[in-house]
């Protein structure tokens, strides 16, 4: 092994990517960590007072479940007003069209009343969008990682409400020496030995990173487990053993 290659090997060894004996052995070990394929920071879609938060820290939820309810009395009142204004504009426009048949109303009045209808329709749609955000619905099934708000709290549009994760769809993130690309390919089998559970789980490489890190000479991999395991959660880690090549 050349001096430069030896230094490279020692550097990888120190950061836990390569075990002693990885060069020339039939088994390779790296560290891997479980991460969620789906995770999100859910933000408020409007500025309003929160009426209720229907989930707790660590709690489970299902797709489409209401997570947060807002006090939208003002928006409901505005929608009621918009409906009334639109109905009035439509009635006026219909009357103008009827009167135009007798020459009582000109084309300008008809155009203006039609414009009023379009204006009030747009205002109604804008308020309906705000009303549709009065309940924050879960985008996927999962668990609450962190809550940033409480009931009766005023929240501004765009501020974070909670962090959520889909813990039923996990993948293994790992970094391996770039030399392994000589034999490592997608679908290559591995075994993940999770420190927290003391159990082993089989899996396969799903994605190989598009670039090699120039400083560490490593490449990022993503792997998927052969079978889901309910005891596994994001953040767990352990050693990943690759089969002989």
Describe this structure in words.
The chain is an alpha+beta fold. The chain has two domains: 3-37 and 169-242, Efflux pump adaptor protein, beta barrel domain (Elongation Factor Tu (Ef-tu), domain 3, Beta Barrel); 40-165, RNA polymerase II/Efflux pump adaptor protein, barrel-sandwich hybrid domain (OB fold (Dihydrolipoamide Acetyltransferase, E2P), Beta Barrel), CATH 2.40.50. Helix content is 27%, strand content 36%. The protein has three helices and 14 strands. It has helices spanning 3-14, 73-100, 107-132; strands at 28-36, 39-43, 48-53, 60-61, 66-70, 135-137, 142-147, 154-155, 160-165, 170-177, 189-194, 199-213, 218-225, 237-242. The strands form three sheets. A six-stranded antiparallel beta barrel has the order 1-10-13-12-11-14. Strands 2-9-7-4 form a four-stranded antiparallel β-sheet, with no helix packed on it. It has a four-stranded antiparallel β-sheet with strand order 6-5-3-8, with no helix packed on it. Strand 11 and strand 12 (199-213) form a beta hairpin. The longest helix has 28 residues, at 73-100. It is elongated and about 90 Å long. The two termini are 20 Å apart. Residues 175-244 form the CusB-like beta-barrel domain.
């Amino acid at each position: 092994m050349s001096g430069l290659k030896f230094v490279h090997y020692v550097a990888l060894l120190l950061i836990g990517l390569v075990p002693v004996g990885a060069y020339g052995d039939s088994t390779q070990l790296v560290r891997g960590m479980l991460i969620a394929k789906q995770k999100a920071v859910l933000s408020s879609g409007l500025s309003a007072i929160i009426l209720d938060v229907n989930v707790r820290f660590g709690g489970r939820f299902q797709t489409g479940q209401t997570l947060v309810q807002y006090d939208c009395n003002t928006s409901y009142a505005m929608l009621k007003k918009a409906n009334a204004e639109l109905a009035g504009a439509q009635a006026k426009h219909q009357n103008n069209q009827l009167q135009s048949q007798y020459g009582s109303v000109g084309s300008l009045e008809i155009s203006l009343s039609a414009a009023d209808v379009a204006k009030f329709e747009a205002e109604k749609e804008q308020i309906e969008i705000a009303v549709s955000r009065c309940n924050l619905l879960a985008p996927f099934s999962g668990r609450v990682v962190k809550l940033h708000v409480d009931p009766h709290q005023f929240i501004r549009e765009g501020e974070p409400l909670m962090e959520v994760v889909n813990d039923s769809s996990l993948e293994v993130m790992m970094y391996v020496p770039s030399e392994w690309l000589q034999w490592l390919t997608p679908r290559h089998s591995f075994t993940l030995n999770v420190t927290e559970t003391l159990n082993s789980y089989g899996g396969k490489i799903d994605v190989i990173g598009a670039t090699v890190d120039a400083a560490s000479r490593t490449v990022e991999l993503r792997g998927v487990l052969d079978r889901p395991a309910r005891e596994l959660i994001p953040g767990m880690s352990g050693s990943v053993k690759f089969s002989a090549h």
